[in-house]
Amino acid sequence: MWPNIRYNMHLIPALVDLRIVQRRIIFDDFVIPEKRLNYVKQSKGHLGLVHTKLWESNKHNNRHTLRLDRVIVNAILSKTGPHGRRDKSRGRPASGIRHLLRREIMLLFNMEYSKLCQILLQNIDYKSGKKQDITLVMPDLSLAINELKQELISIESGLVNHLVFKRMWAPCLARLIELAWINREASKNRSKDC
Hints:
By secondary structure, the protein is of the alpha+beta class. 38% of the residues lie in helices and 15% in strands.
């Protein structure tokens, strides 16, 4: 069966599970796609990446609280464009800050490592403002955050003592979301000015 499925236990995805990459097992001349749980997929119109419902599954995930800067939370909520899923599933479409945060986390894990290193190096002494607690159902990302930290440190050894990596995985993830959002908004503003 799938290698990262444990029955009656919550899943702890690895970094490779959260990134959009082709995974294959190669036997002599025969190539088989590796069976893994999909946390990320290409949108139907190939316009970008979307997170799957596995992020929201109560069966596989626990509730976790992220403490994010209130200004960033309000900026994410005021984002223009469609907020939520457009499919024929039962119930209301997923929307709101929890759904938007899952998307931001998914985009963070699919960001190029060199870009993430650059963002962290530009914000060595980053301190967030007044925080807002947001509880959401999502996978335990402790393993993925640890692997991401090791990847970033292998690229840039100066990140070993970065403030973002001083705490546990949830505060680290919150600071990474904030920094990625700030960087994305700054780059949008720079492109508008040109």
